[in-house]
Amino acid sequence: METSKVKFLERTLMGPGPSNIDPRVNAAMTRPIMGHLDPEFLKLMDENMILLRKVFKTENPLTFPISATGSGGMEAALANIIEPGDRVVILVNGVFGERMADIAKRYGAEVKVLEIEWGKVFSPDEVKNFISKHAPIKMVGIVHAETSTGALQPLEEISYIVHNYNSLFLVDTVTSLGGTEVNLDQWGIDITYSGTQKCLSCPPGLAPVSFNEKAVEAVNNRKNPIISWYFDVSMLRKYWETGERFYHHTAPITMNYALWEALKIVEEEGLEARFERHSKLSNLLQNALEALGLKLLVEKNYRAPMLTSVLIPEDISDLDIRGKLLTQYSIEIGGGLRNLKGKIWRIGLMGYTCQKKNIALLISALGQCLNDSGFKADINAALSVLNGE
Amino acid sequence: METSKVKFLERTLMGPGPSNIDPRVNAAMTRPIMGHLDPEFLKLMDENMILLRKVFKTENPLTFPISATGSGGMEAALANIIEPGDRVVILVNGVFGERMADIAKRYGAEVKVLEIEWGKVFSPDEVKNFISKHAPIKMVGIVHAETSTGALQPLEEISYIVHNYNSLFLVDTVTSLGGTEVNLDQWGIDITYSGTQKCLSCPPGLAPVSFNEKAVEAVNNRKNPIISWYFDVSMLRKYWETGERFYHHTAPITMNYALWEALKIVEEEGLEARFERHSKLSNLLQNALEALGLKLLVEKNYRAPMLTSVLIPEDISDLDIRGKLLTQYSIEIGGGLRNLKGKIWRIGLMGYTCQKKNIALLISALGQCLNDSGFKADINAALSVLNGE
């Protein structure tokens, strides 16, 4: 097989991530590489920690990017908290809750899974009932914005319940961070992990994490050493947090430049303005999709503003439509995963991708592709929703 | 603390890595981001696998970059092979051998460590004696170019011994790959991991690995599931190798672009020409350092061509000299680690950094800094070594 056949195509990335990135972030990656112990790079690490704390709305000193993608962040969070034999509860309403349960089992936890229909969110009562049946529990894990369904889970009441049972509260904020309110300190989230390639609009490759004092205490009080060396925060914090700058591994330099620039952009826009943009434009997208004649998976009150799941109409081919969007319009949207495969499309409006022009493009292109397949999409009605705004 | 204080300085990176990168690699990272399941990105993944096989000199289908830095590659290699209770031998002559032993223990191995003086290499006889004492052994691990000392370990005879005892042979090629011969198939290396930020001259962030048929068989025959989810090659190969393209995690897109371009550059130069360049220029560097009046840590026959360890002369301050090189000449060199801290400097000539002009700059700058500190460095003699070539 010959190489050199790759075309680097400009895509409108409206799937579940990665999202498009600001040209400033692109440019940031071309800055000259410094060493991972260079005083200027250490300053940049400090600034990334400061900027991440603002986005997470936390004072947690231990807030930094793990040198891996979002799922590496998930493993880092679980691997540091869980010891063999610990009983934990994982709340599953999609693929990423399932993955959490899988990883927790691998690290030796006794995992109690409460699973509900994918696309739904958990009510405080069902969580309370489940926890009370299994208490005492070391940790309860849940996904904020479930990337496989686009459901946004309210967290405050559940956090209250979890802490009443004296458990640690771990939340997956991979898809939500930077696109909707994530308030670690006010909501009492003890451990979280995220990714860079969703609403932060930075390329994939880093996983911001944050551990509060209680979580750090749990790490410090472990009876067994952490199995994973790469994800061991008791060592990582000596490089990132404590000022010792003790060499652990060579940090991905350019990825940290990209994250720095992406976080500056978030800061300049302002968090609340950014949330408002995601909220307003996702409403527009959802209204336009419904005006096309499509139905959405998630109930209105629980839709994540950065990711909308659309039910694929009967007699319409998932792959055919997604293929046409990609080859004819260079638009990427996501398919369904696992039991939602072939049943939904996942349409992302994340960070830099979250622009009105992208909604207009998607609606026109999707409407046209659907009509070519015999579905009667009302493109006029859908576009007039956009014009009304 | 305010942010925005970072200066992105142009450094001549002559430490143990990261190295400087070719402007083409810098440009490659600015290509538009595609999704991790985009057909064009899948082609790029295929090409990265093909190009990596060429650099590793192997036909192993399971040859791909782990989405983490070199130490993540080390963990991936060990985590997949080792099951709790397995007896393994780790040969330690520096920090990275020690790290291998640490990780192997974390994953439950019974680790037998043969440690020799740092800066030396292992003789086949001492390895044979040690293995015979502890056989049967599942795996023997060794470092090819020990980044903490600059010693280059001959591997062929040791590989023969290891296989006579029916063990798997795992080799760390983080620093050697792309700078000197690494021949997986001919040398019988069963598992290896590397990094991108050394002689491949790509930013840090990926860890190329390769598992041969015997290694894959060991993974397939495990009695216990692999503990790490992120590094589980039984799942990763469904995304990378088998053509299923089964989603595992979101690959770091831009890092894979960078690796692709870096591997193209290696291919265009030609592996043998690249090895010759590293060999010739490192000889020049070593001769020039000796002409300055400095002594080298590693015996002549076992010096890694991409990394030279210099003994710090008596009464000379490690930090003072390295600080001056950085602030006055924007040159990074490395200090010693652990028991070599304050005793050696590590001077890298890796990939794109391996140019005669960089040697001239380093020799002039280091000579001048040493003379300022009262050491009588013979700069004239050292530079005439360079001019003689």
3D structure, described in words:
The structure is a homodimer of 389-residue chains. The first copy, chain A, is of the alpha/beta class. Chain A has 2 domains: 12-16 and 270-387, Aspartate Aminotransferase, domain 1, CATH 3.90.1150; 23-267, Aspartate Aminotransferase, domain 2. Chain A has helices at residues 23-28, 39-56, 70-81, 95-106, 124-134, 156-164, 184-187, 213-220, 233-240, 253-269, 271-292, 318-329, 356-372, 379-387; strands at residues 12-13, 62-66, 87-92, 110-115, 139-143, 145-146, 151-152, 168-172, 191-193, 207-211, 295-296, 307-311, 331-332, 334-335, 344-348. In chain A, the strands form 4 sheets. Chain A has a 7-stranded mixed beta sheet, with helices on both faces. In chain A, strands 11-12-15-14 form a 4-stranded antiparallel beta sheet, covered by helices on one side. In chain A, helix 11 runs parallel beside helix 13 and helix 11 runs antiparallel to helix 14 (379-387). The longest helix of chain A has 22 residues, at 271-292. The termini of chain A are far apart. The mean pLDDT of chain A is 96. Chains A, B: InterPro entries: Aminotrans_V_dom, PyrdxlP-dep_Trfase, PyrdxlP-dep_Trfase_major, PyrdxlP-dep_Trfase_small, SP_NH2Trfase/AEP_transaminase. Chains A, B: It is an enzyme of class 2 (transferase). Chains A, B: GO terms for molecular function: alanine-glyoxylate transaminase activity; L-serine-pyruvate transaminase activity. Chains A, B: Its EC number is 2.-.-.-. Chains A, B: Belongs to the class-V pyridoxal-phosphate-dependent aminotransferase family.
